From TrEMBL:
NCBIfam families: HEQRo_perm_3TM. It comes from the Bacteria. This is Amino acid ABC transporter permease. CDD domains: TM_PBP2. InterPro entries: AA_ABC_transptr_permease_3TM, ArtM/GltK/GlnP/TcyL/YhdX-like, MetI-like, MetI-like_sf. Residues 70-264 form the ABC transmembrane type-1 domain. It is a multi-pass membrane protein. The keyword Aminoacyl-tRNA synthetase does not apply. The keyword Transport applies. The chain crosses the membrane at residues 27-44, 74-94, 115-135, 246-265. It comes from Propioniciclava soli.
Length: 275
């Protein structure tokens, strides 16, 4: 007597499409984020946060002195940027020079100042008057900050400018030389304008970094009139035993850097469209 075995049908699961899988992953990420935010709100003492970081009377007091500190921060930053841009352009041309000693000197300078912290450079420049009595930078302390931060930023700008110069098509230079234009004039009128147009976004990023590096000038032992935002906020925080002035100073930095960041993104997007 033969028995027929019944085979149970296989149940096949429907495959989830990549789009649905990605959607589910996003939903999980959103849920985790919302849970973390709710947990933070539930556990944080709002009154304590307000009294330590956002005390109204200290906000008003800090805002009264912020304009002068903000001016000093901008002065330190812009002066150092100009010094760095001029010196960085010279260094970039030296790196591309056919004269070997120029290339060696530029390489040594760039590697040295890229490897040394800006804080040490600022401290060294502040002590130069001790090592060399009578040595004074013009417009001190602005001149000291411009020289120190400018020399550090020049090492970074030099590499950026060199990359921009090398990105300019060589055919344009050869065409200018074939028309009888001297090499120096071709560099000034053809190569450098196009190079700076290419490297404007990274140079703007360097300006943002310099804005934050200006907070290191406290090592120079500045007077009250020369305080920048960080030093001004820290002095008020120490005297009032509260972090509100530092928070206000931090927001002032955002007022400077956020528009620059937005500008960089716009310029990068425009360059991508042009390509």
């Amino acid at each position: 007597m033969s028995s027929t075995a019944t085979v149970a049908p296989r149940v096949t699961r429907a495959k989830i499409s990549p789009r649905k899988r990605a959607r589910r992953i996003r939903l999980v990420q959103y849920a985790v984020l919302i849970a973390l935010v709710v947990l933070m709100i539930a556990t944080v003492d709002g009154r304590q946060v307000q009294s330590v970081f956002f005390r109204p009377d200290l906000i008003v007091l800090t805002l009264q002195g912020v304009p002068h500190a903000l001016f000093n921060t901008l002065a330190y930053t812009l002066g150092a940027f100009v010094v760095g841009l001029v010196l960085g352009t010279i260094l970039a041309l030296m790196r591309l020079s056919q004269v070997a000693p120029y290339r060696w000197l530029a390489s040594i300078y760039i590697e040295f100042f890229r490897g040394v912290p800006a804080l040490i450079v600022l401290l060294s420049f502040g002590l130069l008057s001790v090592a060399f009595p009578g040595l004074r930078f013009p417009f001190d302390p602005y001149g000291t900050v411009w020289a120190a931060l400018g020399m550090v930023s020049a090492a970074y700008m030099a590499e950026t400018i060199r990359a921009g110069i090398q990105a300019v098509p060589k055919g344009q230079v050869e065409a200018a030389r074939s028309l009888g234009m001297p090499a120096g004039m071709a560099t000034r009128k053809i190569v450098l304008p196009q190079a700076f147009r290419i490297i404007t976004p990274p140079l703007t990023n360097e300006l943002i970094l310099l804005t934050k590096d200006s907070s290191l000038v406290y090592v120079l032992g500045l007077t009250t009139a020369a305080f920048e935002l960080t030093k001004f906020g820290r002095e008020l925080s120490n005297s009032n035993v509260n972090l509100t002035p530092l928070v206000v100073a931090g927001f002032c930095y955002l007022i400077i850097t956020l528009p620059l960041t937005f500008l960089v993104r716009r310029m990068e997007a425009r360059q991508q469209k042009a390509r």
